[in-house]
Amino acid sequence: MSTATANRAETEAQVEKILTEGLKDYWHAICPSHFVKDTPVSLRRLGRKLVLWRDADNKVHCLEDHCPHRGAPLSFGIPLGNKIACGYHGVEVSCDGTVVSVPGNPGCKLEGSRPTRAFHIQESAGAIFMYNSSENIDEPPPLVLPEQLTSGEYSAFLCYTEWRGGYRYVIDNVMDPMHGTYLHKQSHSMSVGARSAEFQLRDTDTGFIFEKAGQRDVNFDWSEWADTGLIWLRLEIPYPKTGGPGGNFGIIGCYTPISPDITAVFHWRVRKVEGWQRDAWRFLYKNRLEARHWTVLEQDRVVLEQMESDANQREHLYQHDVGVTRARRQLRKLATDQLNRGVL
Q1: For residue 223, what is the domain's CATH number?
Q2: Domain containing residue 234
Q3: N vs C: which end of the chain shows fewer Cβ within 10 Å?
Q4: What mean pLDDT is reported for the chain?
């Protein structure tokens, strides 16, 4: 093997590692808010084991779940406001990663050092988002969510689940509107429209939209890829009148690697409704529509979990897959940029 070939192979392996673990210096949804209560919680996300806890003001803090003294899990410790005391030897670590106290050996060189990886947290739309910084930083960039999750004109429900398989297959699934016509053809909201289509790409300020040419507001007709320092996807599905008041039924998606073979799947179901219509739709959703939407998600889960890990290495793509390939290129470019910055 030539040196150039070996270097390309090494670069490809490094890019793949970045993509498998998840981008650094990006925001990621890591769990629903209700996962973190009164006691520390240990979660595996983004190639790390994390500990999260709440202080007296209900603010969530996050560190790598690793005591800098001997490596014991901090999640077995005791939260002390914005710091946590390791349950093994009592070492106290602040939420910024600084060791503030070593009770067994006061004044030792460990005190005052900042060896623990710390992560900034923000809660919004019923979820906890973490800035996956490549090093400890004092201030992260702002978390920018789509307006459907921040504007009072919309009402949203968070649907969270965990699927076997890599998160990139879930992204591929959302960027493939045509699968709705076939896999979900029995759904009350995806049973109409043409069974063949031509697609086009349209750039946006934050990414792109992949859409059927000549068909809109009929079926699952388009998907949006967006990068606002958080990668999120969006789609809309028209509702029949039996679906209640409001505009089209929208879905916002974020997908985070728990491990190479498990994905944290976040879907916010959103609808533009206000006043009494909001209350009517929320009641109808919880009492009638939610079960149907879980059925549709289950169809996706069954297919994706049965796909081999190398399925995307043995494909024969066609025009309907342009959105998938564009999303893959976007992710790969971001991973390559990260590698070029020397961040692994």
Answers
A1: 3.90.380.10
A2: 150-337
A3: N
A4: 94
